[in-house]
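Appendix C. Worked example: Arylsulfatase
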Amino acid sequence: MNTTLSSALTAIAACFFVSLIASPADVDAAERPNIIVIMADDLGYGDVSCNGATALQTPNIDKLAAEGIRFTDGYCSASTCTPTRFSFLTGEFAFRSKGTGIAPPNSPAIIQPGMETVASLLGKAGYTTGVVGKWHLGLGGEGGPDWNGELKPGPLEIGFDSCFLLPTTNDRVPQVYVENHRVANLDPADPLWVGRKKPSKDHPTGISERESLKMDWSHGHNGTIHNGISRIGFYTGGNAARFRDEDLADKWVEKSNEFMEQNQDKPFFLFFSGHDIHVPRMPHERFQGKTTLGYRGDAIIEFDWCVGEIMKTLDRLDLAENTLVVLTSDNGPVLDDGYKDGAIEKNGDHRAAGIYTGGKYSVHEGGTRIPFITRWKGHVEPGESDAVVCTIDLAASLSAIAGQEIPEQACQDSVDVSKALLGREGGEGRQWLVQQDNGRRGNYGFRKGKWKLHRYDSGRTQNVVVEESLRVSKVPEFMLFDLEKDPEEQHDVLDDYPEVAAQLKAELVEIVQGKSP
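Step 2, the predicted output written as C-alpha cells:
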C-alpha cells in the first residue's frame, strides 16, 4: 500500500473512531423526553418558509424552527424513500443490504426480526413505540405480504408496539390501511389481490380508461385505477378497506393523537411518517387551491397543518416541555414524478431545493440536504446550527438521549450527534457523510468537511434540474466540489485537487466495500 493511501485510510479510521465514541448529550435519566420523529416525503430544503420559501408559507414548521434548532446542514442518507427509511430505523447504510431499493408493492419485509432498530432500542429503554403513516419497507415473509391474513414480520417484529400504516407508497397499490398485523376493515368475502401483472378479467387501468382519470399520468403510473387515479401495479377486491387519497393526512393526525393520548403518562416514541408531498398529490379539499403552486404546494401546506396539529396535541396534553420533536424529510424534492398535477407549470420562481442542485434520485446536495429541525421546549436553546447531522444518526443519538446502550455490531453507521441535536456544548455533528441514490449498486456522494466527491457506478445521474421533468444526464465517473465556495455544485475541481480526490476516493472505497469500525 502506498504512503498516500495508507495515510488516507489511517485518517478515515481515526475519524470513524472519534465519531463513534463521542460522548452523548448529558440528559438526566429522570428527564428523558418523549420522542417524535416527523418525516415528510419528498420535501425539499427550499420548500419551507423558514428556509427561504416565499411562494408559500409554512407557519407551523417555522414555529417549530423558531422554538428549536434549524439545521442548515441536515441530511437524509439517500435521495429515495426506502433506503433512507431503512437507514433511519437501522442506523446502517442501505447499500450494505440487498433489496433496499424502492420497494415494490409485494415486497417482503426488508428489515428482518433480530435486527436492532431505533424502535427496539427505545423499547429496551422503557419507551412505548408506534409508527403512523407511510411504511414502504415491505411486509411479510420471503413470499411477500399475505394481504388477507397476518402481515408479519412487519413493524411489530422489529421493535414497534403498534402501527397504523400505508403499507407501500400511495402511487403503488394497494390503497388500504394496515393496522398492526392486518389490513384494516377488510371483508373476508371480498379478498384483496395484489400483483405486478394485470388480472385476466377486465379491470380498468390508466391505459384502458385514461379519459376517466381525475389526475392523468405522465409516465409509469398507468396500472389499476382507484379514486380516479391510476397507480403502479394491479389489485382487485378489498373494496371496503380502501381509503380516499384526500383523507390520508387527517387519518395520520387522528391515529397519532390516539397514540399520544393513550401513552401520555409514560415515555413514548412516535414515528410520524407522512405521505405528503409524494405523488399522487391529492390533498384534502380544504387545502386544494390554497397556494399558487398547484397540488404540490397545497400538499406542502397540508403537511405543515399536520405538524401544527401534533404540536397542538402536545400542548393540550401538557407534554410540549417533555417531548423532543425532530422534523425531517426522506429525500429531496421532485416536481413531475409520474402525474400531470401542474407542479412544473405552476412552480413559478419557487426553488424546491433552495440554492442546491439536484433533488430526488440525485446525489447532488438537493437530493439529500433537507429541512431538519429539533425542538425540546425548555431544554433546547433556539437557534441555527451548521453541524452536519443525518437521519441515519437518529438511531445512535436518540438511544443516547434515552440512556440506552447499543449492542456491538448494531447501528454500525449511526453516529451519536445528540449534543448537536440538543444544542449542547461540543455538538459538532458528524465529520463525514455518504449519500446514495437508490439500492445497492448506484451512485454516491461523499462529503467530508468542505469537500464533496461524486462517484457514479451506474454512469448516470437523474433530476439535476428539479424544475424540469426527470432527465438522465451523462456524467464522469468522479467529480469533486468545494461546498464552501460552490454549494450549488456547479464547478468540478477534480483536476485542480488530485490529492484530495485520491484521498476521498480511497476513503469511500473503504466505507462502501467494508464496514465502519
